[in-house]
Design a protein that fits this description.
single chain, 448 residues, mainly alpha, Growth Hormone, Chain: A, 2 domains, 17 helices, 79% helix
Length: 448
């Protein structure tokens, strides 16, 4: 539910703008208002989960997210919807930051943990992949408000289940790591980073460069603070782990390519092939189906047998192949020939790569640092997705403008821009593939 809300609004944007009277510039904040607090608070929320209890953080965040969904669904003014989306981002960060840490604690055994991570990855992938479909279907059938109101019964059921099923855990207490200056620095750095990335896609310039420098300065100040604090918010020694650092870096590259594919792929289907919103969502369905089937039935067994360090490169190779296929999709393309094979490759690759990179990121993490590692993993997802979307859309738009100015037809120019974006995405994931082979080839996360 929380991952789905990151992109469910994409196809509902025209209806929201017409109903609430958003300006074109203001409309982007329906997405940005969610992403910035979500990405900025993940690391802090993960660490606070270690200190006050991960179940308490998870259920509190779920309650905040569900309440914010109600406010978003009944919004009648642009500012009220933006405020509700920001509150959704806060609640989403509180829940998402600790869920991996809870899984590691609940399933310490190698086989059980691999299965749990596969189910977790399948749920997240389904949320991301189904966002476009559900956004189009709900908007056309019931109205844009229901892309938010549908969260109310889901959130209520999840909240009741969490109280009944999850065991209570006692954190170490805020005194064990309540570094408030450090918390302010890292939260400010991450929020500025996400804001700079999403703004760079449309307003690149001196202001964006200045914000990037400021975000880097805050991050550097945070590192210095953690090295000197008596009770640091983040134990810097955690990043000496090749598995944790390598897996998170590789995830940034993988998610950048995959998230950009979802957005650019939807534009290709709509603006080049002429699909409407609902048909675009239906066209994407094979990917989440493949992801769900393979993650729930095969991924855990593959990781258990061959090791995550071997499964990850194989999955990334399939993703590169799928993106390369889309890079040659013509303007007069046919779905069965030019789109469906790529979707199947991307679905199969992601089903293998995502559980593997998750297992590697959490390998060897101490129980008391599980929430922090979980928050870090979720943070790199948001940064990777935002970065991929900003870079790929900017490249596609620049190529389209150049060709249109040279006399090319609008469809041909759009298609060429999208092809460029797909090829760049394939190159980005290919860098992750090389890193996976070179950096993580000796890691054995399931050899407990």
């Amino acid at each position: 539910m929380t991952i789905l809300d990151g992109n469910v609004v994409t196809v509902a944007m025209p209806a929201i703008q017409a109903d609430l009277g958003f300006t074109p510039a203001g409309l982007a904040w329906v997405v940005n208002a969610y992403l910035i607090p979500f990405g900025g608070l993940l690391l802090l929320a993960g660490r606070l989960g270690d200190l006050v209890g991960r179940k308490r953080m998870f259920t509190s965040g779920l309650a905040v997210f569900t309440a914010a969904s109600l406010f978003a669904g009944i919004a009648t003014q642009p500012w009220t919807l933006i405020a509700a989306r920001a509150l959704q981002g806060v609640g989403g960060a509180m829940t998402s930051a600790v869920v991996l840490g809870m899984l590691v604690a609940l399933f310490p055994g190698a086989r059980e943990q691999a299965k749990a991570i596969a189910v977790f990855s399948a749920a997240g992938a389904a949320g991301g992949a189904l966002g476009t479909f559900l956004g189009g279907a709900l908007t056309q059938l019931l109205g844009w408000n229901w892309i938010f109101l549908i969260n109310l019964p889901i959130g209520a059921v999840a909240l009741v289940a969490a109280f009944r099923v999850l065991e209570a855990d006692r954190g170490k207490g805020l005194r064990a790591g309540a570094d408030f200056p450090g918390a302010a620095l890292i939260t400010g750095a991450l929020m500025l980073t996400v804001f700079t990335i999403v703004e760079a896609g449309t307003h690149a310039g001196t202001t964006t460069a200045a914000l990037a420098v400021l975000a880097s300065a805050l991050l550097a100040a945070f590192v210095v603070r953690q090295a000197r604090a008596a009770r640091p918010l983040v134990r810097l020694g955690l990043f000496r782990s090749r598995s944790l650092s390598g897996a998170n870096a590789i995830q940034v590259l993988m998610i950048a390519g995959m998230y950009g594919f979802q957005f650019i792929g939807a534009l290709y289907l709509q603006q080049v092939l002429g699909y409407d919103e609902l048909l675009t969502g239906v066209a994407f369905l094979p990917a989440p189906v493949v992801i769900g089937v393979l993650m729930l039935g095969l991924s855990a067994r593959m990781i258990g047998r061959f090791g995550a360090h071997r499964v990850l490169p194989a999955g990334l190779a399939l993703i590169v192949a799928g993106l390369a296929l889309l890079g040659r999709a013509p303007a007069e393309g046919a779905y069965v020939v030019d789109v469906l094979p790529a979707l199947l490759l991307l679905g199969g690759g992601f089903a293998a790569a995502m559980p593997a990179v998750t297992a590697l990121a959490m390998a060897g993490v101490r129980k008391e640092d599980a929430g922090l590692a979980s928050g870090l993993f979720s943070t790199t997802q948001v940064v990777g997705g935002s970065l991929g979307l900003a870079v790929l859309t900017t490249l596609a738009a620049s190529r389209t403008r150049s060709l249109t100015g040279g006399g090319a037809s609008s469809v041909a120019a759009l298609n060429s821009g999208f092809q460029l974006a797909f090829w760049v995405a394939a190159g980005v994931v290919a860098v992750g593939l090389v890193a996976a082979v070179l950096v993580l080839h000796r890691v054995r996360p399931l050899a407990h």
